[in-house]
Amino acid sequence: MEKKRVLSGMQASGRLHLGNLLGALEKWKKLQDEYECFYFIADWHALSTSYEDTHEIKDNVFNIAVDWLAAGINPEKSTIFLQSMIPEHAVLHLLLSMITPVPWLERNPTYKEKQQEIKDRDLTTYGFLGYPVLQAADIIIYKANYVPVGIDQLSHLELTREIIRRFYYIYKKTIFIEPEALVSEVPKLPGLDNRKMSKSYGNAIFLSDTPDTVTRKVRTMITDPQRVKKSDIGNPEICTVFKFHKIFSPARDASEIYTGCTTAGIGCTDCKLMLARDLNDYVKPIFEKRKELSGKPEKINEILQEGSKRARTIAKQTLSEVQEAMGLLVS
After folding, report:
1. Nearest CA to 41 among 69, 71, 10?
2. How much is the pTM?
3. Which residues contact 33 (CB under 8 A, 6 or more apart)?
4. What is the pLDDT of residues 155-208, one digit of tens each?
5. Beta strands per DSSP E along 117-248
6. Alpha carbon of 136 to those of 141, 144, 145, 173, 252: distances in Å?
7. Which of 134, 181, 250, 331 lies deepest, with the highest CB count within 10 Å?
8. In a domain, 309, yes or no
């Protein structure tokens, strides 16, 4: 049987952290054994908020590709490509923007949330308002059956489906597949300060962090605020460090920490040192693979070039079908 197609991507807006590993990469790694997977680095999307300062985008593309490969995304199983190497994405975005009502974009919850969160940049641009249309083009140009998303991204996917329906309503041609969401339960990983882990908050542990850096960051993590001295009984359920233990530590260590905390048998410093050890053990294979791949820029570029070549073959065919349906000349 022909495999169903999965598509997903990440913005080239910074280094990847443990939240990206748990929330996306570990899921992607499993999907590539069951589906035909297309994974792309979205450098054009990075421009929607970073258009004034683009000097890091090229390095971000390289480092994201390295992180993906180190985490187990296999170019022999999955098509790994770069958004800007496929100009058909931009053409389809333009064509879809002609039929997408502005109120559909203005009601997008992320549009308002990011404008409130990001105060140091002017986000009153057409590109920022219309980036969900580019996102729709990214997905439907490959006729993806499924898109792995978090719950907070479901509204974006529904907009993609609405654009597909509007295209059919106007042009009476069934070209695109309405993609379905692949929503999986992933443990919520807080940042070092118990807020959402984010590079913009400065509270992230990155996949590229050295073991010493990981240990240093773990030492700064917030614990039970009511536990001042080692002799105080702690509550692991409100402790950021214990949340990490439940995800990254062996069950035996997590159980030992829980008992020690609730009986004042272990102090927060020892608890953090155990976490640093277990966390470094968890990411060691990725860190070692990263070191190897980081010294091979030619190999990374070759993987992106080959993946983009494969992806573009499909994108060109879909775009031809769209142009024909819209009564445009097909090159």
Report:
1. 10
2. 0.93
3. 77
4. 889 999 999 999 999 999 999 999 999 987 777 789 999 998 988 788 999 999
5. 146-148, 180-182
6. 8, 11, 13, 17, 45
7. 134
8. yes
